[in-house]
């Protein structure tokens, strides 16, 4: 029952957001804020972060903090490149998962078997992952076609599909710049035009993860290990096994995120190309309060703002208006709830954004790069999170000791 | 006897760790078709005088960075933002010092204070967001890192001095330079004056944590937030204060190098120390003495690895793998040894308790 | 599946193997920037020049390579070890070496140093240092001309890796060249990162930026973004037929994948190989280069490539502009 | 099924279990008849829980054999025990707070009915059959202790256990809840289940058990039938000495008000009232007892008085000073001692040595500190004093708190909170989980201090303790004080009725 209410709330919020974006688009003429290209780019930017975040979700739901996502992701980029080069992109995806899983296995070994502090192990894995990917690239890619000691480019990319009728129709409608209709058409268009099957795989993995973790026996057991491993153990759950499974899957997911970077976000491997996306994924997961929906929202927020600022700095200016309106709306809502101070702060901020929007024509391009980071901070600061992480997240667990 | 056993146990962990790390590293090198012997003979050769100076200097930077991270860890705060904090602080201090608004040493002291202030403020934002809005410091410091680095790039481009293809802050006047002490040839370079800052901060850290009320509160909060609250600690205040402190220390990370060698913020700015610091803090178990070893080890490996490409065909990336492996191996070894020692300890407790109980007269067998 | 192109283990694309060089020419120390030999770019260009010196001058060599986030002292060390080892000249690749060469050179007055892209950071001249500078703006001007001539939408783009003075030089020249052909042309400019050097290693960022430009109607995009450039090429491939990308530093048509090749209009050439070779040969001749050496159009230090034959129809026009630059009739700006 | 089974359900023979340096069990022999309630008693640390964990497969015995339903078995994990029809409710709740009742119940037993609708109806059915009244979709964190206890039992029943181990299930329950639990147990017994029951409350044992086994120092020291033994004899068997119980002494209450609460209301983050309009005073030399079923706001009330929670409305005065706005530290400095309910979470730094634990809560007061500095020597010698005076069994004051047994941890806390002449002591369940010897000692300390003018707020689930120690008892129900009782005249049954609201109609 609670879940259904939540769904309604989300639906309302999403609808409100689309309406507002559409209105702002018409008002400012910044049609780039939700064009087909923008949405497609946002999806592409989101996927690697999302996979890392889902990886984090797996691991932390089983009670293991995985700060090593970045390292596992890096290993994934290498794995994707290596296996794609020799066996094609789908084996490459598998290779990314495999290498990421190896990183996860190392983390599981350290944290579960040896009971090492999770953060220490994660930090070590990040160092090892980066070092190993460079080392492996130097050892295996230097002499390949398109390869060098730091890169392997021109890899085959997973199949892309366009759904003929729908794609064209959506594009036609989106180009009309009508209110609401075009915005929805953009969404449809982005999902039917030149869509990488890897993106579909990512979506499937996210949904499958949510289903497995919350709807299956396996998931229940896994989550119980993150909430109260002693209780799980007392009921015959092999906690170590589930933690191992979770952390290995976590690594694999992060690795697949790395694979996406190497195969879809661009067509090649470059050392260090993850560029902190593993950490962003971690942030997205915390943002999402250790739940798949919120995590996806967090990844999308970041992916959208990041790709928007890279594609089209002028549209970033329109974001100011959106933020301003959003803030004022929130402020009014808070005011109705009787939270005056919060309402005043938000209102003032909102007005500031509106003034900024009205008095300028563009955001200085030097600042555009900060958009995703500031947006994330802003959303978090305003949402006033009541974070609830799994109760036994990050805690050492030793079999037979806490019963 | 017992003490000896314990000492042996505490030395055991690092020794096991180093051996394990060496074995793994050797394996990696051999697998890649190079000679592990070459690698170790380079790494373990006596550093030349210049390298010793560099190791000392680098140790000081890494050490300060690790302290900054450690103070957060001791409070269960994960300040990943050291990187951004010291970047912004270094830029601010360099700009102020470059402006040469003050004479002589004042032009050192005030920029140092500014660095402390800027670092503290940047970290304080994360602290405030955490206590007022419940934003996880892990997220906010990651975001603040990116913002700081972009901001500095922007400011430097806009207000910096453009020389050739580079841009930097104004070079500080001779009178504000603190080059340090030359122990070997002049060309081997000096140990920077402000490297002593690391020492001071380390002692200060130790005293603060172990000898003061404040330190007690901080450690208590880190060990058990609930117990700390019940004991009267204002945890929100502690979160903000320790973030401020962490950021303040972070602000100083690059200062020895700045006043000792770089003299301006530009290509000579050494990025990445914030992340190294986190690893070293964890390696040193967030203890001021432990961190010394970690910092020396990292500085040593980095410096020696410099010679790898010149003298062998082994990739320097191997060193990174070694460093990561050491961190992991050390903590694993510590854990194994800790388990062993807990057993020892419990045995002693039980033995002594048994000793106390034995003579109790009230016990009598009943059937 | 593809095949390995060569089977030698430690030689990159440039084919320099210092271990086997055994002539009696100059002993050269080559200090690479981050990435080292095999980076398919800058460092490889230097290595190629060195390889030529090995062949033609009987030079021998040693190599060192910078690491990410290394301290200034590490760069100095590298140079000193080479100098102590009797290497002369010592060629440092990348302007990040400017400060360290300036610090080290006075201690080794008998050794000649060169810094590619370098500059003297202080007022005291160093008379044993050569600063091998390039007129990237001039080369970029020419590819800007090519872009403006080829575009069908009068809309082109530029993707820079990091917003610093060096990359701005590329932007300035490119925009000037394009506007020389068509004053009304639209040029989108985007830097992937403001100051973080990771902007040179983020192909996903390069692709996102370039895709945005293509989506907005640009049909030619020039990149000066290092390894991120491969993302720009990918964006051109995705944008479909009739869209172009322009490479940088070396002739990137040669290293691009089969898919990318049809989209690589030309590349702006920066002849680090020439400069490196010149430096070595000047030492061999006993008259080491010193001070600022400008490798501009006039000295064949920069240029453009024609591989693929996509600009064969306009080379005459481009060359006209080149002549004007050489003669000084056109002054190419160095900052946007 | 017939309640009079002929065979023995469980036979434990020669069981021994050694932990590093500790012999938890040795030479244990117990026979448990099928279809009976078998009580296991013994002082703290006697090895009861360990023995049960062995029977449930959590621990492996070093020696001895286990026979279940006539077959010798070896258990590698709880799974094996569960397969043999054994279920266990642990001394400490083994529940995941953030999961629903349903999820907690089906966890590990998904094979039976899956985790979906079938499982839900199975849970609902058991819940109705035994009158548990549990909502399968409720989050466990929203449940009170009584309900949690029932979830634990439901877990066991869901697995079809026929041999049910209950390790101190009544420790946190009030008499009425105990009664309803016992009703449940009797039904179970009638259905042929075998129940192993551990308790420190001898009345209960005599009430419910068919057989009683007594353990001391790791081994079985005696067996008894409830109809042929008295409470007194049982206690003697257990501890080898007489059973203490707190005795009311002459009143030492003065006229001086030490603590007064006026209309104190406390709300949670969502605005729900946890305590409403609480008003009372405690005088110097007076012990005010608060009786209440756990979860009725007493924990929040205590946390409010010590300053860990904010008052929504109302005032709190200490002596003549209004301390409503003070922080916890200021309150402690003003002389409030605090024995928290959960000693490990709120009272100790488990990984710090004892002398540092002496400082905790007294960080600003001598002898722990000198100005801004920690006074290690001062804290150390005062810790030595506590260890001696309060008989804390520890090898040294450098030992970490974690290494002490629960009772000794509690004694350390009591000693600490009594030092520095507090004016007010807030004691939450000061003797919970403490063995009888230590219990008597702690009562003695509280009485002594009261005589010296200490005001005490006492919260306890042990009604005998409450009646024996208090000068006055207030009953708390749903966050309100609903009645005052004179301990001289009140019985536990009266209190229990007031605590559950059973007397609301008449009051
Ligand atoms: N995991 C363990 N490791 C070491 N020693 C243990 C462990 N568990 C129990 N012990 C020891 O075994 C002894 C018996 O403990 P047990 O928990 O069985 O006592 P108990 O009779 O259940 O006590 P209580 O009434 O307090 O619950 C304890 O005194 C303790 O010293
Ligand atoms: N999981 C464990 N691991 C190691 N030792 C343990 C563990 N649990 C208990 N012990 C040891 O058992 C002893 C007593 O533990 P516990 O707290 O269960 O005792 P208790 O029976 O509650 O004691 P008390 O009679 O004081 O209430 C302690 O000395 C502790 O070191
Ligand atoms: Mg000079
Ligand atoms: Mg027990």
What does this 3D model show about the protein?
- The complex is a heterotetramer of chains A (403), B (367), C (336) and D (507).
- Chain A has two domains: 279 residues, ABC transporter involved in vitamin B12 uptake, BtuC (Orthogonal Bundle), CATH 1.10.3470; 75 residues.
- Chain A is 74% helix and 2% strand.
- Chain A is built from 17 helices and four strands.
- Chain A starts with a helix and ends in a 20-residue tail after the last helix.
- In chain A, 62% of the residues are buried.
- Chain B has a domain of 251 residues.
- Helices cover 72% and strands 2% of the residues of chain B.
- Chain B is built from 15 helices and two strands.
- In chain B, a hairpin with a 2-residue loop joins strand 1 and strand 2.
- With 336 residues, chain C is of the alpha/beta class.
- Chain C starts with 26 loop residues before the first strand and ends in a 9-residue tail after the last helix.
- Chain D has 507 residues and is α/β, with parallel strands linked by helices.
- Chain D folds into three domains: 231 residues, P-loop containing nucleotide triphosphate hydrolases (Rossmann fold); 170 residues, Rossmann fold, CATH 3.40.50; 76 residues, no CATH class.
- Chain D contains 18 helices and 22 strands.
- Chain D has a six-stranded mixed β-sheet, with helices on both faces.
- In chain D, helix 14 crosses helix 15 and helix 15 runs parallel beside helix 16.
- Chains A and C meet through helix 2, helix 3 and helix 13 of A and strand 7, helix 6 and helix 7 of C.
- The structure holds adenosine-5'-triphosphate (ATP) (2 copies) and magnesium ion (MG) (2 copies).
- The site of one adenosine-5'-triphosphate (ATP) has 10 residues of chain D, from helix 15.
How many β-strand runs of chain C? 12
Reported for the largest beta sheet of chain C, the result is: 6 strands, parallel
What is the averaged pLDDT score of chain A? 88
- CATH architectural label of the largest domain in chain A: Orthogonal Bundle
Number of strands of chain A: 4
Number of helices of chain A: 17
Task: Report the total helices of chain C.
Answer: 9
What's the end-to-end separation of chain C, in Å?
A: 44 Å
Our Rg estimate of chain A from Cα atoms comes to 22 Å
Please report the two chains with the greatest interface, counting residues with C-beta closer than 8 angstroms to the partner's C-beta. Answer: A-C, 46 and 55 residues
The proportion of residues in beta strands of chain A is under 5%
List the ions, cofactors and other small molecules found in this model. adenosine-5'-triphosphate, magnesium ion
The average pLDDT of chain C is: 89
Spatially, the strands of the biggest sheet of chain A line up as 1-4
**So what's the oligomer here?**
heterotetramer
**Structural class from helices and strands of chain A?**
mainly alpha
Shape of chain C: globular
Name the helicity range of chain C: 25-40%
Could you list the spans of chain A in which at least 5 consecutive residues all have pLDDT below 50?
none
């Amino acid at each position: 029952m609670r879940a259904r209410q939540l769904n309604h709330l989300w639906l309302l919020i999403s609808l409100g957001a689309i309406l507002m974006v559409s209105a702002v688009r018409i008002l400012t003429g910044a049609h780039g804020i939700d064009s087909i290209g923008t949405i497609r780019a946002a999806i592409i930017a989101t996927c690697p972060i999302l996979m890392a975040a889902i990886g984090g979700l797996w691991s932390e739901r089983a009670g293991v903090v995985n700060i090593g996502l970045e390292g596992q992701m890096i290993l994934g980029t290498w794995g994707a490149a290596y296996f794609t080069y020799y066996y094609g992109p789908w084996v490459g995806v598998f290779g990314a998962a495999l290498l990421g899983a190896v990183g996860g296995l190392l983390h599981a070994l350290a944290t579960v078997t040896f009971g090492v502090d999770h953060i220490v192990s994660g930090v070590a894995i990040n160092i090892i992952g980066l070092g190993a990917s460079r080392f492996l690239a130097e050892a295996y890619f230097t002499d390949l076609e398109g390869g060098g000691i730091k890169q392997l480019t021109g890899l085959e990319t997973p199949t892309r599909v366009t759904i003929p009728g729908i794609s064209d129709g959506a594009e036609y409608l989106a180009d009309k710049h009508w209110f609401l209709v075009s915005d929805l058409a953009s969404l449809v268009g982005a999902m039917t035009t030149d869509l990488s099957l890897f993106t579909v795989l990512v979506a499937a993995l996210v949904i499958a993860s949510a289903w497995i973790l919350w709807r299956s026996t396996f998931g229940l057991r896994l989550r119980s290990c993150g909430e109260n491993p002693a209780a799980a153990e007392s009921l015959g759950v092999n906690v170590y096994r589930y933690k191992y499974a979770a952390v290995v899957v976590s690594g694999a997911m992060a690795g697949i995120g790395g694979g996406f970077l190497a195969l879809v976000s661009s067509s090649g491997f470059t050392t260090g190309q993850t560029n902190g996306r593993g950490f962003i994924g971690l942030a997205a997961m915390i943002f999402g309060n250790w739940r798949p929906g919120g995590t996806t929202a967090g990844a999308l927020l970041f992916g959208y703002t990041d790709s928007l600022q890279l594609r089209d700095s002028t549209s970033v200016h329109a974001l100011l208006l959106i933020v301003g309106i959003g803030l004022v709306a929130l402020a009014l809502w808070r005011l109705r709830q009787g939270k005056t101070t919060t309402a005043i702060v938000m209102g003032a901020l909102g007005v500031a954004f509106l003034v900024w929007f009205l008095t300028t024509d563009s955001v200085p391009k030097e600042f555009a790069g900060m958009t995703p980071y500031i947006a994330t901070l802003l959303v978090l600061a305003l949402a006033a999170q009541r974070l609830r992480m799994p109760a036994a997240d990050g805690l050492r667990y030793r079999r037979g000791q806490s019963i | 006897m017992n003490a000896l056993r314990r000492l042996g146990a505490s030395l055991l962990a690092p020794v096991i760790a180093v051996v394990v790390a060496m074995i793994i590293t050797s394996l990696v090198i051999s697998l890649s078709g190079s000679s592990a012997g070459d690698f170790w003979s380079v790494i373990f050769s006596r550093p030349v005088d210049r390298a010793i100076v560099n190791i000392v200097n680098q140790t000081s930077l890494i050490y300060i960075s690790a302290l900054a991270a450690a103070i957060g860890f001791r409070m269960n705060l994960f300040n990943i933002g050291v990187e951004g904090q010291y970047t912004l602080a270094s830029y601010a201090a360099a700009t102020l010092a470059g402006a040469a608004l003050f004479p002589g040493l004042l032009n050192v002291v005030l920029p140092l204070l500014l660095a402390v202030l800027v670092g503290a403020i940047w970290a304080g934002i994360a602290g405030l967001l955490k206590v007022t809005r419940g934003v996880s410091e892990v997220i906010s410091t990651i975001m603040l890192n990116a913002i700081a680095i972009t901001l500095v790039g922007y400011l430097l481009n806009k207000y910096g001095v453009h020389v050739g293809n580079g841009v930097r802050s104004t070079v500080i006047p001779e009178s504000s330079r603190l080059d340090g002490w030359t122990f070997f040839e002049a060309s081997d370079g000096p140990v920077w004056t402000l490297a002593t800052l690391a020492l001071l901060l380390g002692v200060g850290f130790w005293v603060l944590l172990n000898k003061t009320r404040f330190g007690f509160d901080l450690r208590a909060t880190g060990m058990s937030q609930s117990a700390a609250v019940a004991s009267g600690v204002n945890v929100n205040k502690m979160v903000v204060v320790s973030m401020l402190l962490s950021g303040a220390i972070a602000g100083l990370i690059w200062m020895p190098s700045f006043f000792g060698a770089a003299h301006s913020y530009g290509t000579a700015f050494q990025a990445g120390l914030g992340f190294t610091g986190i690893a070293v803090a964890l390696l040193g178990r967030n203890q001021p003495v432990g961190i010394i070893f970690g910092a020396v080890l990292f500085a040593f490996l980095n410096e020696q690895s410099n010679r790898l490409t010149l003298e062998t065909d082994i990739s320097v990336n191997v060193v990174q793998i070694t460093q990561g492996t050491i961190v992991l191996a050390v903590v694993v070894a510590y854990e194994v040894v800790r388990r062993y020692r807990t057993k020892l300890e419990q045995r002693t407790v039980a033995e002594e308790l048994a000793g106390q109980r034995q003579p109790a007269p009230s016990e009598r067998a009943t059937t | 599946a593809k095949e390995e192109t060569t089977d030698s283990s430690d030689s990159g694309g440039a084919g320099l193997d210092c271990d086997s060089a055994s002539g009696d020419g100059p002993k050269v120390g080559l200090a690479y920037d981050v990435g080292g030999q095999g980076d398919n770019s800058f460092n490889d260009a230097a290595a190629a020049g060195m390889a030529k010196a090995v062949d033609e001058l009987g030079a021998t060599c040693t190599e060192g390579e910078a690491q990410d986030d290394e301290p200034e002292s590490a760069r100095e060390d590298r140079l000193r070890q080479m100098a102590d080892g009797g290497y002369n000249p010592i060629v440092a690749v990348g302007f990040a070496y400017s400060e360290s060469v300036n610090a080290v050179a006075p201690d080794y007055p008998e050794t000649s140093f060169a810094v590619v892209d370098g500059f003297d950071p202080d007022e005291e001249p160093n008379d044993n240092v050569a600063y091998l500078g390039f007129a990237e703006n001039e080369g970029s001007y020419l590819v800007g001309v090519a872009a403006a001539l080829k575009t069908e939408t009068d809309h082109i783009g530029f993707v820079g890796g990091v917003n610093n003075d060096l990359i701005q030089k590329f932007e300035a020249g490119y925009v000037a060249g394009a506007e020389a052909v068509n004053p009304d042309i639209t040029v989108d400019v985007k830097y992937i990162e403001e100051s973080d050097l990771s902007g040179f290693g983020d192909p996903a960022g390069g692709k996102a930026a370039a895709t945005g430009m293509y989506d907005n109607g640009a049909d030619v995009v020039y990149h000066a973004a290092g390894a991120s450039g491969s993302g720009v090429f990918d964006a051109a491939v995705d944008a479909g037929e009739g869209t172009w990308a322009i490479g940088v530093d070396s002739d990137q048509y040669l290293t691009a994948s089969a898919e990318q090749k049809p989209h690589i209009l030309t590349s702006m050439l920066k002849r680090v190989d020439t400069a490196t070779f010149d430096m070595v040969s000047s030492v061999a001749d006993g008259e080491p280069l010193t001070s600022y050496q400008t490798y501009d159009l006039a000295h064949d230090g920069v240029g453009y490539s024609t591989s693929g034959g996509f600009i064969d129809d306009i080379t005459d026009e481009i060359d006209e502009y080149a002549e004007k630059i050489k003669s000084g009739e056109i002054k190419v700006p160095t900052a946007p | 099924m017939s309640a009079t089974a002929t065979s023995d359900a469980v036979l434990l023979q020669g069981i021994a279990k050694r932990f590093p340096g500790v012999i938890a069990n040795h030479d244990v022999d117990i026979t448990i008849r099928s279809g009976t309630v078998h009580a296991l008693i013994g002082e703290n640390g006697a090895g009861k829980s360990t023995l049960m964990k062995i029977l449930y497969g959590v621990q492996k015995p070093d020696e001895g054999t286990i026979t279940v339903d006539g077959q010798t078995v070896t258990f590698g994990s709880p799974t094996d025990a569960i397969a043999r029809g054994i279920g266990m409710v642990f001394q400490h709740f083994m529940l995941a707070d953030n999961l629903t009742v349903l999820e907690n119940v089906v966890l590990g037993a998904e094979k039976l009915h899956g985790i979906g609708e079938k499982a839900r109806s199975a849970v609902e059915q058991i819940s109705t059959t035994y009158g548990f009244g549990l909502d399968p979709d409720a989050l466990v964190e929203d449940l009170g202790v009584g309900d949690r206890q029932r979830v634990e039992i439901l877990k066991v029943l869901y697995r079809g256990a026929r041999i049910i181990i209950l390790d101190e299930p009544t420790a946190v329950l009030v008499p009425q809840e105990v009664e309803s639990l016992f009703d449940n147990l009797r039904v179970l017994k009638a259905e042929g289940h075998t129940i192993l029951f551990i308790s420190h409350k001898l009345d209960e044992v005599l009430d419910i058990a068919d057989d009683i086994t007594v353990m001391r120092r790791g081994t079985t020291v005696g067996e008894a039938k409830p109809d042929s033994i008295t409470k007194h004899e049982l206690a003697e068997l257990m501890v080898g000495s007489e059973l203490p119980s707190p005795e009311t002494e002459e009143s030492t209450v003065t006229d001086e008000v030490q603590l007064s609460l006026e209309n104190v209301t406390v709300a949670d983050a969502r605005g729900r009232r946890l305590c409403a309009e609480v008003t009372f005073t405690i005088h110097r030399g007076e012990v005010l007892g608060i009786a209440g079923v756990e979860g009725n706001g007493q924990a929040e009330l205590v946390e409010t008085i010590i300053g860990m929670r904010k008052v929504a409305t109302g005032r709190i005065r200490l002596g003549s000073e209004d301390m409503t706005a003070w922080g916890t530290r200021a309150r402690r400095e003003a002389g409030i001692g605090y024995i928290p309910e959960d000693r490990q979470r709120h009272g100790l730094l488990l990984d710090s040595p004892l002398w540092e634990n002496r400082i905790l809560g007294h960080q600003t007061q001598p002898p722990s500190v000198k100005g801004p500095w920690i006074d290690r020597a001062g804290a150390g010698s005062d810790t030595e004093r506590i260890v001696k005076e309060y008989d804390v069994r520890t090898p040294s004051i450098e030992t970490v708190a974690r290494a002490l047994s629960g009772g000794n941890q509690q004694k350390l806390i009591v000693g600490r909170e009594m030092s520095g002449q507090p004016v007010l002591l807030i004691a939450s369940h000061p003797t919970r989980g403490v063995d009888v010897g230590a219990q008597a000692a702690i009562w003695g300390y509280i009485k002594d201090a009261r005589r010296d003018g200490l005001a005490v707020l006492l919260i306890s689930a042990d009604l005998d303790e409450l009646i024996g120690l208090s000068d006055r008892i207030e009953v708390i129900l749903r966050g309100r004080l609903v009645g005052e009782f004179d301990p001289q005249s009140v019985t536990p049954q009266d209190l229990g009725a007031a605590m559950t609201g059973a007397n609301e109609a008449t009051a």
